[in-house]
Amino acid sequence: MALGKDYAQQQCSIARALEIVGERWTLLLVRDAFYGVRRYSDFLAHLGVPRAVLAARLQALVDAGVLDRRRYQESPPRDEYVLTGRGLALWPVLWALGAWGRAEVPGSLPMRHFHHADCGTELDPRGICPVCRVPVDPADVEMRPGAGLDPDPADPVGRALLAPRRLLTPLDPAATS
Ligand SMILES: [Zn+2]
Question: Which residues form the signal peptide (predicted)?
Fold first, then answer.
């Protein structure tokens, strides 16, 4: 029997989740959405993903209920993509993946630091504020640039992300460049 292209025969919850977020680029799109990226052109600028792939991945995330497509301009028509509740629920997944990468994948640099916005303390590897002793919601996380960060000068999103910012705050590269 030939191997299928998906895990449709799999009942395992990990396999079923990977049906939604397991394709190349998809989790990076979700990551950028937490960083505040909402617009097609900004995802394109920051990730350098081929246009057709980006359009397909965004559509798949909308179809899966991870992103919500909202029209923000009528002429010409422009949409933005915002995490739904289902998308926001991916935060612990991304957090754990980042912590695993830093611990287990040689060469992974702490490109960004994540702090509890209320008290300024850096979160521990579990995503918990060591001072307040609570797991911190992404909306209460302040992201600060790490020493290893060196964005492409041609990437306005990367440059905008050099400033400390709260996660999920809509990013407007034009306002910061
Ligand atoms: Zn705290």
Answer: none
